[in-house]
């Protein structure tokens, strides 16, 4: 970071007592960060709302500055987290606008080639096998994938320095020094030192790669393994796109079926403070299914305000927590956290259950069963504006408005997409209304085997 990185004296003063609100800025000030939290974890708070373009960690102060690509993304993030602060290492952190409009760095040239594809966390350069090589870690798995697809085989300079890019066996880069050989862009407190020894130590770690397309990943959900790009390397292994982390083909998997192993934690969520009069297993299946494929749902027999939701894997479970914890549902603020259980047991034959446990593992309504699905690129926080698709030509504006009104929604705005009348945006009276409408109307049958598709939108009307 350059000498123009923000000083925090004014921010610190304002963080105490009654703080006068700053005007919206794409730079956000994050406070009360527990020790041990990594830059990648802080970046993960912003990724659901848009591209993260810079980060400054102030570890001694438990603070950070996070720069989003746009003011709109920053506003969405602040609006979402203000009523329900996010948690890092089980402690709440607080997010507000900074007085600074951008974070300046003096090392942009080190990541300029790759930064256009997303936020670069770390870079390490070294010599191995008489070749100059480098390792680069993105904050987001999808960005790493697109960087590889776009830059593999391209030359840095015309006719020379051709890049050969593949996914590294390393799951996380360890950087101890910020110098001309290694750089951690989330840390300004690292010494200059001699970074070569650090690289060799990191590369000595063994990794199992049997049957993998991407190596098994054990870092925070949603973060990419490092990209390795030696010059003149062998042919690349063809990757599989996916936004929920690296994908591995298991030996027992059916053709086209992908699993995402290696991410620690349970795939079962404990969901509490539910409205027992309104909640159903199907409702939870549809809502949590926006953020992953729900395999099973169980509402507690004696405590109907508590449920278990089993996602396809731990990364999807974490994604659902990030988006739905603190969301208002049927008049109550829902709480979602990881459960101690690894799976939801189905009721034994003859066991009284009253339909409170459901198995959806083979449901046709799973949004992410196809690893190439566009749904991976359209995951957004709950919002008052819904994206509608698969609308039959015979259905009119009034038909759709009346449909949503019949479910208790207040329609504030509506418009069809100009280039595709099968899709539309509908803006409802509140985020809670939109959540209810999505549960009620996703997969609504228009007849003749045409079903409405509903998801949250980042747009407004």
Biggest sheet, in brief? 5 strands, antiparallel
Helicity, as a percent range: 10-25%
Give the CA-based shape.
globular
Strand order across the largest sheet: 11-13-8-7-12
Mean pLDDT, nearest integer? 76
Tally of separate helices: 10
CATH superfamily of the largest domain: RRM (RNA recognition motif) domain
User: How many independent structural domains?
Assistant: 4
Specify the CATH architecture of the largest domain.
Answer: 2-Layer Sandwich
Low-confidence stretches: 1-20, 106-111, 195-225, 231-264
Please describe the topology of this protein.
Layout: H1 9-14, E1 27-31, H2 39-46, E2 52-58, E3 63-68, H3 71-81, E4 87-88, E5 91-92, E6 94-97, H4 108-115, E7 120-128, E8 131-138, H5 141-151, E9 155-157, E10 160-162, E11 166-167, E12 182-184, H6 196-203, E13 227-228, E14 268-272, H7 281-288, E15 294-299, E16 307-311, H8 314-324, E17 328-329, E18 332-333, E19 335-338, E20 357-359, E21 385-389, H9 397-406, E22 411-416, E23 424-428, H10 431-441, E24 445-447, E25 450-451, E26 453-456
Antiparallel strand pairs: 1-3, 1-6, 2-3, 4-5, 7-8, 7-12, 8-13, 9-10, 11-13, 14-16, 14-19, 15-16, 15-20, 17-18, 21-23, 21-26, 22-23, 24-25
Helix pairs in contact: 7-10
Give a short synopsis of this structure.
It is built from ten helices and 26 strands. It is α+β, with helices and mostly antiparallel strands and about 450 residues long.
